[in-house]
Amino acid sequence: EVDLEERLHELDLRSDSDIPDVPPPTDSTPEILKRALSGLSARWKNWWIRGILSLAMISGFFLIIYLGSFMLMLLVLSIQVKCYHEIITIGYRVYHSYDLPWFRSLSWYFLLCVNYFFYGETVADYFATFVQRREQLQFLIRYHRFISFALYLTGFCMFVLSLVKKHYRLQFYMFAWTHVTLLITVTQSHLVIQNLFEGMIWFLVPISSVICNDITAYIFGFFFGRTPLIKLSPKKTWEGFIGGFFSTVVFGFIFSYFLAQHQYFVCPVEYNSETNRFVTECEPSELFQMKKYSLPPLLQAVLGWETVNMYPFQMHSFALSTFASLIGPFGGFFASGFKRAFKIKDFADTIPGHGGIMDRFDCQYLMATFVHVYITSFIRGPNPSKLLKQLLILQPEQQLSVYKTLKSYLVEKGILQPSLRG
Where, per UniProt, does this protein localize (predicted)? Predict the structure, then answer.
């Protein structure tokens, strides 16, 4: 026991000096921006570069929103693949000198396997009527989980066959690295798409809240920041954290009011098999219908109003904005710790002034999980439309059995007349 404790103590005292240095990312700032901002200090030059690129990204995001839900899904998939590539590349750069066999190939193979599983589940869940009309898809959906497992098992066996003497531990490190990366990127991006299917507003408000908090916290910290917030991110300040919180809550409340007025944003995204298009047409639920609320006595005294008209969703937006501004940043702190562990400034140099795609979406993945849990816990109820789609897939004798059981139940409850028995 003493020897074991001494050994563990030695491991605790090890520094990160044994981790190979990762080459610093190159400066990808366009030459035209470099020349235009050449006379500014490094601090203000970074401010302008981040600001210009942020506006460009936000403009592009609005364009994709205009193009519809399908383009948003493609955007999520593209971001997922790029984030996965950035994290896996860090592992490859750190350990490339060991020349591990099949590491990159297996990493991308596992990405394809996991995406096949998750997107297959989505197709089976939301496009049941479309699948029912095509026999080849029926086979794939019926045995989808078995096929997914077989594909993963193939990759697993390939990994075992790739093991090389003297590098076993390192190879298992990288095997774990790949799977944790899959958990962070693929699983979370799948939840983002699940949120999108509930209505574009459940996609836009959380994502915009994180973006708003990131921008306003940076602005407040840049101009007023004096008090360090956390050692993992030396540039983060309490002033920026608090300013970002209040700005995000106000933004979420106003942005939700605007979106709640339009069917395009509030209706669940459904696939119309007749037109082969995604549609967002429905009768808005109670969450998106204006209601009158009585204000607490204190607010009545301050504002001079007794009641206020608002959408119920705006109260939910308060919860989403609060999470985005108070808990969401911890996704960024986690990413900062990860980068410090491997002595890198950014995940990549994809976006000048911002770093890699993962640097901009480190908080979004945490937010996606919260929104999904929030919807399933407080919002979503039984969905007759989805249940009907599942019933249509059953065999005729199974559908008839369900019909007889449901009719018998409704008669017992007095909803149907006993004379309808037959």
Answer: Membrane
Beta carbons within 10 angstroms of residue 159's beta carbon? 19
Lookup: tokens for 175? 């095997």
DSSP character string of 323-385: HHHHTTHHHHHHHHHHHHHTT-SSS--SBTTTBSHHHHHHHHHHHHHHHHHHIIIII----HH
Phi and psi at 61, nearest 5°, equal -65, -40
Q: How far is CA 399 from CA 37, 402, 405, 406, in A?
A: 69, 5, 10, 11
Strands 307-310 vs 233-237: parallel, antiparallel or unpaired: unpaired
pLDDT attached to residue 13: 43
CA distance 248 to 214: 9
Q: Which residues pair with 291 in a beta bridge?
A: 310
Helix (H, G, I), strand (E, B) or coil at 237: strand
Query: What is the DSSP secondary structure assignment for residue 187, as one 8-state letter?
Result: I
User: Both tokens of residue 233?
Assistant: 């991110």
Weakest-pLDDT range from 32-36, 82-86, 218-222: 32-36
Which of 36-69 are b and which e, b meaning 16 or more Cβ less than 10 Å from the residue's Cβ?
Answer: ebeeeeeeebbbebbebbbeeeeeebeeebeebb
Residue 153 has pLDDT above 50, yes or no: yes
In this structure, of 139-148, 207-216, 312-321, 374-383, the range with the lowest mean pLDDT score is 374-383
Contact indicator for 322, 345 with CB cutoff of 8 Å = no
Parse the chain into domains and list their residue ranges.
26-100+164-381, 384-415
CA distance 122 to 293: 38
The rounded distance, in Å, linking the Cα atoms of 201 and 110 is 32
pLDDT band at 419 (very low <50, low <70, confident <90, very high): low
pLDDT at 362: 82
Q: Please check whether residue 37 is in contact with residue 49, taking contact to mean a CB–CB distance below 8 angstroms.
A: yes
Sign of the alpha-carbon torsion through 355, 16, 42, 335: positive
